[in-house]
Amino acid sequence: MKRIPVLLYIIFCTLSVAAQEKETKVLIITDMGKITVKLYNETPQHRDNFIKLIEEQQYDSVVFHRVIKQFMIQAGEKYVPNDSIANKSEDKDPGYKIPAEIVYPKYFHKRGQLCAARQGDNINPERLSSANQFYIVTGKHYTEHELNKKEKEQNITFTPEQREAYKVAGGTPHLDGAYTIFGEVLKGMKVVHKIEMVATDNNDKPLKMVKIKTMKILKK
């Protein structure tokens, strides 16, 4: 008879932990389609800041202002209507940074990862993240030989999971361990690819702006 309460307690604790570990999902609605991402609980400051900006509608009318094929698409600047400049945008920096939450090698720069942009190490040695600018990894596929070469060049060792991901899905391994990865794309990589392929100028800015209409929290 005493085993029943203990069993119920174990089940209750298991359900409680599972509830706490649920990941927030976000719907990003763009001019070119919808992208669904989930936010990692292992990067709570980035997760909570992203949710805060979404709830404040800070990402409404934000554009993908930097797009590089086989690398990534970056967003965070606000669209500025201008009759003479078709791709005018401005960075509306909230005025604060987010401490780095680099969870490596568990999270690495495979295709589809949601990451925080930041200033370079030369002026930002603590690798603080931008509060509002983020990028989604597209990257390229790597061969075994190319990965071996990168290991020697960067003095690193890729895990079996990294090797498989970079060969099959692709990514940008040279960024590993240097930027905070705080989520990943669940649906909509075809939309990400369409954005990646838009025409850009010499500064990697799309000739025709791809706008984020809005973002919505799907699950907390």
Report on the architecture of this protein.
- The chain is an alpha+beta fold.
- Helix content is 26%, strand content 27%.
- It is built from 5 helices and 11 strands.
- The strands form 2 sheets. An 8-stranded antiparallel beta barrel has the order 1-2-10-7-9-4-3-11. It has a two-stranded antiparallel ribbon with strand order 6-8.
- The protein is globular.
- The two termini are 38 Å apart.
- Mean pLDDT is 90; it is low at 4-19.
Short description:
26% of the residues lie in helices and 27% in strands.
What is the arithmetic mean of pLDDT?
90
Series of H and E elements: HEEHEEEEEEEHHEHE
Distance between the termini: 38 Å
Instruction: Using the CA coordinates, give the radius of gyration.
Output: 19 Å
What would you call the structural class? alpha+beta
Features:
globular, alpha+beta, single chain, two-stranded antiparallel ribbon, eight-stranded antiparallel beta barrel, 5 helices, 220 residues
Topology:
Blueprint: H1 3-20, E1 25-30, E2 33-39, H2 44-55, E3 62-68, E4 72-79, E5 89-91, E6 97-98, E7 113-116, E8 129-130, E9 134-137, H3 144-154, H4 160-168, E10 181-187, H5 189-196, E11 211-219
Antiparallel strand pairs: 1-2, 1-11, 2-10, 3-4, 3-11, 4-5, 4-9, 6-8, 7-9, 7-10
